[in-house]
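Could you show me some protein's one-letter sequence and the numbers that encode its backbone in two labelled lines?

___
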Amino acid sequence: MTEIAETAPDFTLPRDGGGEITLSGLYPKPVVLFFYPRDDTPGCTNEAIAFTGLKSEFDAAGIAVFGISKDTLAKHDKFRDKHGLQVALLSDADSDVCERYAVWKEKSMYGKKFLGIERTTFLIDGTGRIARVWNKVKVPGHAEEVLEAARAL
């Protein structure tokens, strides 16, 4: 389990629109990572739209925001364009980063068990330490709560 005050696991992942993001290359900027199950599903769409709606406030506070799922870059690009998303979406196709952040978990739906991403958000301070973790995120009001916590760093 990835815990508060631990060093956030570093990674380099491809992003929507091309290029790569390396977590450690963003410091000393604080970073928000929101892990979500799948592009273009209702909860994931609402979460990405909420973070997009606050992007200018995150930017003004000097905070980088990234969404991470296992979806392909092509799906990310389609998702971004369909909903006018402005937060960068990273593709963890092999689930390595999801596993290192302990968000790749056994889930259950309609009596069937499967592995998937548990909606989780991490706030990482400018030194690379995990400052806050939100597990089993409920989307309404979440982006606002994350912005408030990030501003308090």
Observations:
- The CA atoms of residues 116 and 150 lie 27 Å apart.
- Residues 29-151 form a domain with the Glutaredoxin fold (CATH 3.40.30.10).
- Strands lie at 12-14, 20-22, 31-35, 64-69, 88-91, 104-109, 112-117, 120-124, 130-134.
- The chain has one domain: 29-151.
